[in-house]
Design a protein that fits this description.
alpha/beta, eight-stranded parallel sheet, six-stranded parallel sheet, 27 helices, about 40% helix, binds glutamine, binds zinc ion, zinc, EC 2.1.1.14
Length: about 775
């Protein structure tokens, strides 16, 4: 008999109940007890959904009021000491302080970091997902202890409801790996022994509570690990297994590769592998895994929203079932945290596209059907199997998915399509003559404050309360305002301000063929913040210009150069749910051609400078180094395709938010943008050093001030940063700009900051 389970379930609630409750609590409108009650109710509902789908266990421990890693920090008693306030601050309130800082500063949409308060824990992406976790901090003084009973209470809650419980814990090695040393010279690996002691206590306590199975997540087994870390697995798990309930070691997101044998041989009762990301490994795992162990196959894609191809799933599962003599479990590939809750209520969604999808609830039901068929009870699920096969077949042959014109365009592309006509030096010379900008030209990254008036107008337009003419006039008025302000400030290269854009991906997706949008397809990004990624279901093409009218209007208001503003192909892909029926690189290239059309049209409309934002290039890197090269080649090629349809006279900019650039500098250079603007101020310009050492050839605008805070930077500060920049990069190649877009700021601080920035540029120019 096959068993079914899930590695985790979305915690926000189908209507984002948790988000709204959290925000009420933070505003002081509901107290901790009310918030706890809402959390308990959500857990209860989510467990019931798991029972309704016939899962053999409900999963306990996946719930969190902010982030599951933060829960572990409290469970393991390793909150950094700066959160020790005098007096008895309740656990939950310390938890939120740790997550949000004391004077919380709202995160900035689009950037990969949220809270920028020095007090809060740092936040970073959970593997290659768009979920952010709070980074544990480790130092020589870190001590662990079993410090929270929250998990045990949740177990008791589920047991009281009569559910068979499987607890999920983040494994000790992954927990340690995902944290960060806060002291130079200290290696967090040294903490392993003391950490294991507390894990043992937790496991003993769970056993004592009557928990039969604990799913212990060690996703780092899918990473390139240092030898010492790999070697630590065996002894750590020997130590843990001693007194523990049955352990199901869960891995996901990438192939185990050199760790297959290690994972199979650890002294645990079962192993979960991701058969969606690493299908080729499955048979090897079935070979290596001893028969007395449970093999849990992650067969339903937990990272994407497509309905499972049941026949492909059987084709994978049947040989494994034959080979593995022990118990077989089936599950989603990873936690369902990364998909929306349910398709129910998606009335706006195109019916055909909807029939191709499965969100969390539907995925649980797929497990029920798969299990029945595997166990020889096909007849009981005949109708479901027919529907599943029909949906997959329809999607495979739909003309909305496959377009001959798009395929032809890619097939016809030739070697030079991703190259500008001339090399950078020649383009630079032509552009210098054309634009006659002063040295150290000033510009901004694109967006200006998204005031409540702008958002209200956009919402009214969407609801049909504001007609197209009235809406256009309102947006044009905003553009005019932004242009006048920039002219008055003395900025050299202007932007229109992006007032008409809700989001830098959605805005383009809505105008491109091949994209669909859900009404309620929210996925947690961090804390209470959710995103609603577009769904790329078909070949991508651009039926009509997307930004030309707004940009040309903005250019008509000024004699200064107006920079056109686009989102790049990699970023559009990265922040969407993508097709699983063709390689990501093909979809990226299709988007690249659509963006290229827009770039060409902008040039034709007289726009001489065009920025193609690619903040997501770095985060798209595969988890294993072996995949980097081909990913980066595809990503940089896609960018160049989008940028290379124009003449040498047209200046292409790109922009990236804060990221670790140093190990991908050759590829950033290979993008061959005439100008790149990057977020650097919070690294005190240190980030630029790598560009200097690498002798990055093209022009660079290192951000001179942080846009996450309303604080107005002084002219002196920015002069100092630019002097640092000029010491590592030739001043003739430098631009001056803020770190990122200004949409989350208000006008007063924006104007004050930009005035100081322009003053800094003038001062520096006078020294040249
Ligand atoms: N052009 C965008 C803006 O200014 C860039 C946003 C981003 O880098 N995330 O808002
Ligand atoms: Zn940015």
């Amino acid at each position: 008999m096959t068993r079914t389970h899930t590695l985790g379930f979305p915690r926000m609630g189908a209507q984002r109940e948790l988000k709204f409750a959290l925000e009420k609590h933070w505003r002081g409108e509901i107290d901790a007890a009310e918030l706890e009650a809402i959390g308990a109710e959500l857990r209860e509902r989510h467990w019931q959904a798991q029972r309704d789908a016939g899962l053999d266990f409900v999963t306990v421990g996946d719930f969190a009021f902010y982030d599951h890693v933060a829960n572990h920090i409290q469970l393991l008693g390793c909150e950094p000491s700066r959160f020790d306030f005098p007096g008895d601050e309740p656990e939950l309130s310390r938890y939120f302080t740790m997550a949000r800082g004391v004077a919380h500063e709202a995160g900035h949409e689009g950037c990969t970091h949220g809270s920028h308060d020095s007090f809060a824990l740092e936040m970073t992406k959970w593997f290659d997902t768009n979920y952010h976790y709070l980074v544990p901090e480790f130092g020589p003084n870190t001590r662990f202890s079993l410090a929270s009973v929250r998990l045990f209470n949740e177990v008791a809650q589920a047991q009281k409801l009569g559910h068979p419980v499987k607890v999920v814990l983040l494994g000790p090695l992954s927990f340690l790996w995902l944290g960060k040393e806060k002291q130079a010279g200290f290696d967090r690996f040294e903490l392993l022994e003391s950490l294991l002691t507390v894990y043992q206590q937790i496991l003993v306590r769970l056993k004592w509570q009557g928990v039969e199975w604990v799913q212990i997540d060690e996703p780092i087994l899918g990473l390139d690990l240092p030898e010492a870390w790999r070697n630590a697995f065996e002894r750590s798990y020997w130590q843990l297994a001693r007194s523990a309930p049955k352990l199901l070691l869960a891995t996901y997101f990438s192939p185990l590769s050199e760790n297959v044998r290690l994972a199979c041989q650890l002294p645990v009762a079962g192993l979960h592998v991701d058969a969606v990301r690493a299908p080729a490994e499955l048979v090897g795992v079935a070979d290596w895994l001893p028969a007395h162990k449970v093999l849990s196959v992650g067969i339903v894609d937990g990272r994407n929203i497509w309905r499972t191809d049941v026949d492909a799933a059987f084709a994978r599962l049947v040989p494994v079932a034959a080979k593995h003599k022990g118990e077989l479990w089936i599950a989603p590939s990873c936690s369902l945290l990364h998909v929306p809750v349910s398709l129910e209520g998606e009335h706006r969604l195109d019916a055909e596209v909807k029939s191709w999808l499965a969100f969390a609830i539907e995925k649980l039901d797929e497990l029920r059907v798969l299990r029945a068929a595997l166990d020889g009870e096909e007849s009981a699920v005949e109708a479901e199997l027919i529907a599943a096969r029909a949906a997959v077949a329809a999607r495979r042959s739909s003309p909305r998915v496959h377009r001959a014109d798009v395929a032809l365009r890619l097939a016809r592309s030739v070697a030079g399509d991703d190259r500008r006509a001339s090399g950078f030096a020649e383009r630079q010379a032509v552009q210098r003559v054309r634009f006659a900008l002063p040295p150290l030209p000033t510009t901004t990254i694109g967006s200006f404050p998204q005031t409540s008036a702008i958002r209200a107008a956009r919402a009214a337009f969407k609801r049909g309360e504001l007609d197209a003419t009235a809406y256009r006039e309102k947006m044009q008025a905003e553009i005019t305002l932004a242009v006048r302000k920039q002219e008055d400030l003395g900025i050299d290269v202007l932007v229109h301000g992006e007032a008409e854009r809700n989001d830098m991906v959605e805005y383009f997706g809505e105008q491109l063929d091949g994209f669909a949008f859900t009404a309620n397809g929210w996925v947690q990004s961090y804390g209470s913040r959710c995103v609603k990624p577009p769904i790329i279901f078909g070949d991508v093409a651009r039926p009509a210009p997307m930004t030309v009218e707004w940009t040309a209007y903005a250019q008509s208001l000024t004699r200064l150069p107006m920079k056109g503003m686009l989102t790049g192909p990699v970023t559009i892909l990265q922040w969407s749910f993508v097709r699983d029926d063709q390689p990501r690189s093909v979809t990226t290239e299709q988007i690249a051609w659509a963006i290229r059309d827009e770039v060409v049209d902008l040039e034709e409309a007289g726009i001489g400078i065009i920025q193609i934002d690619e903040p997501a290039i770095r985060e798209g890197l595969p988890l294993r180094r072996a995949g980097w090269k081909s990913y980066l080649e595809g990503a940089t090629r896609a960018f160049r395709i989008s940028a290379s349809g124009v003449s040498d006279r047209t200046q292409i900019h790109t922009h990236m938010c804060y990221s670790e650039f140093n190990d991908i500098l050759p590829e950033i250079a290979a993008m061959d943008a005439d100008v790149i603007t990057i977020e650097t101020s919070r690294s005190d310009m240190e980030l630029l050093r790598g560009f200097g050492d690498f002798r990055y050839p093209n022009e660079i605008g290192p951000g001179v001030y942080d846009i996450h805070s309303p604080r107005v930077p002084t002219t002196d500060e920015m002069v100092r940063l630019m002097r640092k920049a000029a010491a590592v990069v030739p001043p003739a190649n430098l631009w001056i700009n803020p770190d990122c877009g200004l949409k989350t700021r208000g006008w007063p601080e924006t104007e004050a900051a930009l005035a100081n920035m322009v003053a800094a540029a003038k001062l520096l120019r006078s020294e040249l």
